[in-house]
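Why does residue order matter? Because the sequence determines the fold. Keep that principle in mind as you read this record.
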Amino acid sequence: MTKAQDDKFEILLDHLKRNRGFDFRGYKRPTLERRMLKRMQELGVSDYVDYLDILEAHPEEFTQLFDTILINVTSFFRDQPAWDYLAEQLLPRILAGRTPGQLLRVWSAGCASGEEVYSLVMLLAEALGVQDFSRQVKVYATDADEAALNLARQGSFTEKDIRAIPASLREKYFKRAGSQYVFRSDLRRAIVFGTHNLIQDAPISHLDLLVCRNTLMYLNAETQERILARFHFALNENGYLFVGKAEMLLTHGNLFTPVAMPFRIFRKNSLANKQDPLLRLVHASNRATVPQPDDRQPLRELAFEAGLDAQVVIDADWNLRLANEKAMALFKLNPKDLDQPLKDLELSYRPVELRSLLEQVASERHPLKVSNVDRTSLDGEFQNLEVEVTPLKENGNGLAGFSIIYADVTPLKKTQAELQHSNRDLKSIREEIKSAREKLETANEELQSTNEELETTNEELQATNEELETMNEELQATNKELETMNDELQVRTEETNSINAFLQSILGGLHSGVMVVDRQLNLLLWNNQAEELWGLRSDEVLGKSIFALDIGLPTDELPLQAFLSGAASYQELSLPATNRRGKAFQCHVICTPYLSLAGERRGVVLLMEQVTREA
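Structure:
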């Protein structure tokens, strides 16, 4: 692609992001260009700017483009050995590690039209039993393609789609409805379908199993790395990741540990470096409130007021109920602000947007900590805060409100800056020592360079493998399209044959000979009565000029040109003729135009009948 073409392509990608909120820059460029050009070729467009004009003029084209880019090639129990391992080895291991009554959470990311998630549901229902599955399992199924997701929600498949499912599972989990097979509605209710963009949206959390097969291979290395970090966060400490056969994860060994590499099943590495920029997610534990006797209330209030950190309490209706002295001074609150709605206070959005944090904590019922919150006081003093929001629970899991602590970590930040300065000084000293180790460092660098080259080669091989798998799925998608077209062609052929048989039946029952000629006056139709009348078979005359026929009808006296030019629409005439036995008779001829569906004159229809006896 030339520089000018690349610039046009970037403009097109930017248009898709701004107008549809979907950023395709994380996809592998060769695959993305190939799918985009495929759609453009279907429309007869070769320039990205021209295609951008089509998108602006016809917004419905976005749907067709997304269907082309988001390849939805899937099937039930795809790569059967991997699913056998999942059913026989992995699921029993996951179920054995659960406490009684514990909810099992599973996420099928990039579920396309649903075959994969329904495969999971069948295996889980077989392992637990249908009743326990409905009570103890929550399955999330997401995809960026809303059209594919609508198909998945219906759970309706053709006989060809379910061919890979064992007969015992087909009979147990599918019900026939006409030509379709519909998945059990009671089990469908345990599945939560939703639109989700792996590149942009936050992951579903607290998962025991995450299935994302043959989706990452369409994305570039940087995007894959970000998504895998999110997957790491989403899984429980003993959670498992199940990916496609072309997705190795070899370059992310610090995040996941292989469990069954041939089947691409990995376990979350709980010892991964939490300081990794991609894993800087803080896990806070729940804090239960313990009821105290009434005589301890004053002591609690004193402890609350004397807290070293600013702290406020919000009730379940989002009103400010409590604020200690530190918080009153820090945020310039006064007693009149107590019991006021949070939305009416500056505290709701400064120094941090509290409302979105409270919604997340209320939904997940887990503490949430936000670091690096910068604040400048009215005196111009800079502060760096760490904000922790903790749900206050009552009556089991009921939500009574929220405790919000603003910890001033400014001294810590200053200490860290001083430490960095000391480290720089220490680095200078080490550089002086380094000169004495030049020979050793040179050898180490050569070894490291060799290792990096091997890693690069390995990544290139993995990228090539993913690209081949991508092209294979594109070919499968194309093959499905061709099969569909072939089925439609077969149906049309059968309809044409039926119409031809119907026409032949009508023509064969007429007592008149029928000839149809085109605009070049070549024979298009010749029925049985015409054969009987003139002694020539249809295979002897079709395609020949009417004037080249050796029959006993004076064809040069027929008003054919008048009908072709539109001067005549109906005419009857009687001509002397000689039949196939050489007998003379008077032939009654009716001429009408042969019209197309649009009313265009395509030729002439001639009906011939003997009206006098043979001489």
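The radius of gyration is 39 Å.
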